[in-house]
Specification:
This protein has 545 residues and is of the alpha/beta class. Helix content is 28%, strand content 28%. It has a 10-stranded mixed sheet, sandwiched between helices. It has a 5-stranded parallel sheet with strand order 5-4-6-7-8.
Length: 545
């Protein structure tokens, strides 16, 4: 069995049931909505453009696109890149690529022209599907993209060098192409988040993709009547692999354009969402909006919402405590994974373990974990070491990078680069990224521990701790603090609050600035180190607008 079999089963069993819904805020530029099937909706709590696909329409569109690729000469082993914002066509294009036998290559929609060219070259992509938001970026490096033989454009105002997805796909039959696809065939190339440098190309097989659906469904038990509110970028393993639970259960997903807190909660109410996966900053923004009255919960019907879960970065226990205070009936889960392990699921907290919030949990369904020292041996329980995972979603390799592959894979174990420790009950706690550890005067400081503590200060919206050079200690901890809207804070206040930490863990420098995060919610610490690591830093009182 392979992943596309699940889509075909749903199309046969529930052909007329809604599979996907896309909602666009009314202020979005309508000319970018290429399909005529979008309708203007002004009911409920929001006005928006809406489009739906049933399971039969989803599978038919995937088959048509697969046949379109085959007609263009795409064969097994070829790479087809997707550079699109979240939209309802994203998943049919993804599944159509898989059905054609080609390897799908999702690209980060925040990539610069240089990064787009780099990833297309590294992945050996020969077809690029892209949208209107990327015309300038693609055009700027098109002369460098010698390997790209076909350009397919999703949207209006089609560049003269590209074929129209909408104009062509309907001309091809909605029958499954006859391609012999085996579980161990190459299926997808994902790119690492790039938080430690240029992204690596991560190769997954058909077998690992299917394992993502099995793991997600085992953890969260999606049923046919669930409604998944899908907000994070589809190019990333996180959002898509959580959606795989909806695929396996045949339940509806709502692809939401935009992350404004009120918009998210209005749609959750209108669509009767039951599951939402959030990133830390989005959950914080929702809670802050509730606190200041920008969201009136009394006007919303959130009675169906049963599960809020978070992944992609360490989750502050204080955030979960705030959420549970407002939404006591919600189940909560923390999910840990990385693109090399097909995203979330390698480790998860478990719905029944809310008392262990702060931990990432235990090995997920079908997974094993261990924590290893620098000598490669497992450390004693309670000691800090590198987390290693082993399971059905481990990547095949870093594509075209045997040296990096050899460093990460050891006898089936994936060395994650995350420092962690295990408590007396076997629950794993992330300490920090191996490359983010600060060594100050011979002591190891783990920024996540400092960040988690300082987030308890109610004026702090977000925080990142990095190491900056120091002539005496080698490195010292600097805290970059983003203040909540409408509040002010001084260095002295932060220093007073930080007295709750051991002296050696207290930040030596305080910086008031925005905390940059990538689309998957991870703090962009290389950017902060570049900005602040070599500069003199003067703390000052600051107030947000």
């Amino acid at each position: 069995m392979i992943l596309t079999d699940l889509l075909e089963q749903n199309a046969q069993q529930w052909p007329g049931d809604t599979a996907l819904v896309e909602l666009n805020p009314i202020h979005d530029d309508a000319k970018n909505l290429a399909w005529q099937e979008y309708s203007l909706v002004e009911a409920g709590h929001s006005s928006h453009y809406r489009r739906e696909l049933t399971w039969r329409q989803f599978d038919d569109l995937a088959n048509r696109f697969a046949n379109m690729l085959r007609d263009k000469g795409v064969r097994q082993g070829d790479k087809v890149a997707i550079l699109l914002m979240n939209c309802i066509d994203w998943l049919p294009i993804y599944f159509g690529t898989l059905k054609s036998g080609a390897t799908v290559v999702p690209l980060n929609f925040r990539y610069t022209s240089e990064e787009i060219a780099y990833c297309l070259e590294l992945s050996d992509s020969s077809v690029l599907i892209f949208g209107s938001e990327f015309i300038e970026r693609v055009g700027a490096v098109k002369h460098e993209l010698a390997k790209i033989k076909e350009y397919i454009f999703v949207g209006m105002d089609i560049p003269d060098y590209a074929d129209s997805f909408e104009g062509m796909v309907g001309k091809f039959p909605a029958v499954k192409p006859e391609v012999d696809i085996q579980p161990d065939d190459d299926a997808a190339v994902y790119f690492s988040s790039g938080t430690t440098g240029f992204p690596k190309a991560i190769l997954h097989t058909q077998r690992t993709l299917l394992s993502g659906a099995d793991t997600e469904h085992a953890h969260h038990g999606q049923k046919k009547d669930d409604v998944f509110l899908l907000i994070p970028p589809l190019y990333h393993t996180g959002a898509k692999m959580h959606w795989f639970g909806s695929l396996k259960s045949g339940s509806r997903a709502v692809i939401l354009k935009g992350t404004d807190p009120k918009w998210v909660m209005d749609v959750a109410s209108d669509e009767k969402a039951t599951i939402v996966w959030l990133l830390v900053p989005w959950a914080q923004d929702i809670l802050d909006a509730i606190d200041r009255g920008a969201i009136d919960l009394g006007k919303l019907d959130l009675s169906k919402l049963r599960l809020m879960h978070i992944g992609a970065q360490p989750v502050p226990p204080s955030l979960v405590a705030r959420w549970k205070k407002i939404f006591p009936h919600h189940e909560y889960d923390t999910n840990y994974g990385l693109s090399e392990s097909l995203g979330p699921g390698a480790v998860h907290l478990g719905l029944e373990n809310i008392h262990k919030v702060g931990a990432i949990g235990k090995a997920g369904c079908g997974w094993e974990t261990k924590i290893i020292g620098t000598d490669g041996a497992e450390v004693e329980r309670g000691a800090v070491g590198e987390l290693a995972v082993k399971g059905p979603g481990v990547m095949k390799e870093y594509y075209r990078d045997p040296e990096a592959t050899a460093a990460a894979l050891h006898d089936g174990w994936l060395y994650t680069g995350d420092m962690a420790k295990e408590d007396e009950d076997g629950f794993i706690y992330l300490v920090d990224r191996k490359k983010d550890v600060i060594i100050t005067g011979g002591e190891n400081l783990y920024p996540v521990q400092i960040e988690d503590f300082l987030r308890g200060f109610d004026k702090i919206k977000d925080i990142a701790v990095i190491g900056v050079a120091d002539p005496r200690l080698g490195e010292i901890a600097a805290a970059i603090i983003e203040v909540k809207e409408g509040m002010s804070i001084t260095e002295a206040e932060v220093e007073e609050f930080a007295k709750g930490l051991p002296r050696y863990k207290r930040p030596r420098k305080i910086i008031f600035d925005k905390v940059p995060r990538n689309p998957t919610g991870k703090i962009e610490k290389p950017a902060l180190r570049k900005k602040f690591g070599a500069e003199s830093i003067v703390a000052k009182e600051t107030e947000t607008d």
